Amino acid sequence: MFSRGNWTILGLAVLAAAVGGYAQHHLQTAPAAAVTTAASTIIGQPLPALSLPDLDGRLHDLGKYRGRRVLINLWASWCLPCLQEMPALVKAQQKFGDHGSIVIGIALDEPAHVRAFLAAHPVNYPILIGQPESPGTSLKLGNNLRNLPYSVLVADDGRILATHAGAMTADQMEQWLAP
Hints:
By secondary structure, the chain is α/β, with parallel strands linked by helices. The chain is built from five helices and seven strands; from the N terminus they run H-E-E-E-H-E-H-E-H-E-E-H.
């Protein structure tokens, strides 16, 4: 049977496991709450004034898309979930691009890496280069945790309707972009 010392050790081990489990659960749920809070502060607000360069260095004002529903997708060439969702973004642009909606990719990456990636995996929507300096493009669009991929839905009147941290499914994109 167990001696008093063994019961004490067992009790401490169970207590440590319980505290560890609680801490792990708390750490896993805290970022989701932070994303919700960050996203809720930008939803309903006008799209921030952003002029970003394309791969040729020409500036593009995102305000020029007013009048169209816009899905802005922040990504990087080193982000595997970003790359996995790109085919669905291409299909969404193909399906809804002629109906007024548009997908815009904003790469948070070095232009040379973006250029090399797109040479091997071309897309049918505009790609712009985001600004990393503070406050960078990601923060201006409500991505306080700087998750990638990160998407923002902008209404035709220029207000932000929704944000999404993480890869989106084709069904989610369709719901966002459908007229």
